[in-house]
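Slide 14.
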Amino acid sequence: ELYSFEASPYARPVRELLCELELPYVLHNSGRTSMVDWVPPPVRDALNIVPASDLKNRRDLLRRAGRISIPYLIDPNSGTELSNSTDICSYLNDTYSAVDEQHA
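Slide 15: predicted structure.
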């Protein structure tokens, strides 16, 4: 599962890697709906700003992760949950590239 939105430059490499690795995933579109959504997560955390989004997917992500940070990956195969695009891509490559090479 991937919480993402089309315009996110951080989510794009994750979506591209999921496609490259031919991994099926459920996309939870989590676009921004208010000015608070544009404030980066570290700044929101530092200022104790809790976004109150109109979008169900953003509210679900806040409940699940305790913050809204895009992209957010949930791997149902391992239970792994990650929110940093670099960490997500490393995880996907480490976990699924090797699997693909073993079956080649």
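Speaker note: The chain has one domain: 2-102.
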